[in-house]
Design brief:
Chains A, B: InterPro entries: DNA-bd_dom_put_sf, MerR-type_HTH_dom, MerR_fam. Chains A, B: Keywords: DNA-binding, Repressor, Transcription, Transcription regulation. Chains A, B: This is MerR family transcriptional regulator. Two copies of one chain form a homodimer. Helices cover about 65% and strands about 5% of the residues of chain A. The radius of gyration of chain A is 18 Å and the shape is extended. The model of chain A has no long low-confidence stretch (mean pLDDT about 90). The interface between A and B is medium-sized, with 13 and 13 residues. The structure holds a DNA duplex.
Chain lengths: ~100, ~100
DNA sequence: CGTGTAAGGAATTCTGACACG
DNA sequence: CGTGTAAGGAATTCTGACACG
């Protein structure tokens, strides 16, 4: 659902420049599965602008004392609600088409 | 007039991955003033998605045999026409407001 | 748990130059 | 003119580990 925003092309040093978040933290959040960079053929991490935004969100939550474990649970919840919304939409569409038949 | 597209965050190696254009060529087109990357504090070149698109345009023109000098002239022409269009627009606006006074 | 840091190696990038055509 | 390549150095990135709290 996008183009530039989700293209993974930014190296970790520049992500750090952009966000002020230490490379150590950025790598750690990946280890905790909060963020999922691509890799170049030689193993260098590549991030998208979306990842950069996500990282600032994570950093904000961490500053509020939220643990990485909770942040990850939050992600799942958001995904679940998103799926629920999509299911509901599908249901409505199905009902709609059933009526038209 | 943009955000992600013009943000200079992509290193030369990734630009090469993205376009297939050799780093030598990319640097050379900068020397000929066809492209203008930013630099990190330590001198590493940083390109935007716009730059990447511009580079593929340049590469296409080069394949057709157009010399860098001509490509540069083309840029100036495009800029001139753009300026002319903007001047005309300004002229129309001015005329419009004069009439309303 | 979350993050800093020193360690060692591998890959990246940079510049100036020589080559060829 | 446009581009490849080897050269040497500096900066980047990676991983695994130790430290502290």
């Amino acid at each position: 659902m996008s183009s530039y925003k989700d293209k993974k092309v930014i190296t970790i040093g520049i992500v750090h420049e952009l966000t002020g978040i230490s490379e150590r933290k950025i790598r750690y959040y990946e280890q905790r599965e909060l963020i999922f960079p691509d890799r170049t053929k030689n193993g260098t991490r590549k991030y998208s602008f979306s990842d950069v935004e996500r990282l600032t969100e994570i950093a904000d939550m961490r500053e509020e004392g939220v643990q990485t474990y909770e942040i990850k649970k939050d992600m799942k919840n958001k995904k679940k609600y998103k799926d629920v919304r999509e299911d509901m939409l599908r249901g409505q569409l199905n009902a709609h088409f059933r009526m038209r038949k």
